[in-house]
């Protein structure tokens, strides 16, 4: 299971990262954000981070070391929880319209997957297995 969570996380990070890097305007259009040059630069920096996170996840997919897996999964869980907080706040305050709500669902689902994978790795580490 851990392997598939990391692969799914990698693919989604690459998709959203590439969109932010190469097409920030269309990426933000559904939530009504007019992308200025400054916003585009920030979005592209975020896209670069997501692409990098995708590579970390993909390269860690076959890792059997529970300490390394824990580090990657905890890092991903923190990203999802913080991103969820930002998305919920933006929708709740009307910064983003209700069209921004799918991002909340994405962060909840990914956060749950990373938390479940982390739980399995921690349980497996105690039993001497990987939890995959």
Which ranges are low-confidence, i.e. pLDDT below 50, for 5 or more consecutive residues?
none
SS summary, helix count: 5
Shape: elongated
Major sheet summary line:
none
Percent in strands = under 5%
Order of helices and strands: HHHHH
Count of discrete structural domains: 1
- Annotation, overall tally of beta strands: 0
Radius of gyration: 16 Å
Report how far apart the termini are: 5 Å
Nearest-integer average pLDDT: 92
What structural class do you assign from the helix and strand content? mainly alpha
Work out the helicity level: over 70%
Write the layout of secondary structure elements.
Layout: H1 2-22, H2 24-28, H3 37-60, H4 66-92, H5 101-127
């Amino acid at each position: 299971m851990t392997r598939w969570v990391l692969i799914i996380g990698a693919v989604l990070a690459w998709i959203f990262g590439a969109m932010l890097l190469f097409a920030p305007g269309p990426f933000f259009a559904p939530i009504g954000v007019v992308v200025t040059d400054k916003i585009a630069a920030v979005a592209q920096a975020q896209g670069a981070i997501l692409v990098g996170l995708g590579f970390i996840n993909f390269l860690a997919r076959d890792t059997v070391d529970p300490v390394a897996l824990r580090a990657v999964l905890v890092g991903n869980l923190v990203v999802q929880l913080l991103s969820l907080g930002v998305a919920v706040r933006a929708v709740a305050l009307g910064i983003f319209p209700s069209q921004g709500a799918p991002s909340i669902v994405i962060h909840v689902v990914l956060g749950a997957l990373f938390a479940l994978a982390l739980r399995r790795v921690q349980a497996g580490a105690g039993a001497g297995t990987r939890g995959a």
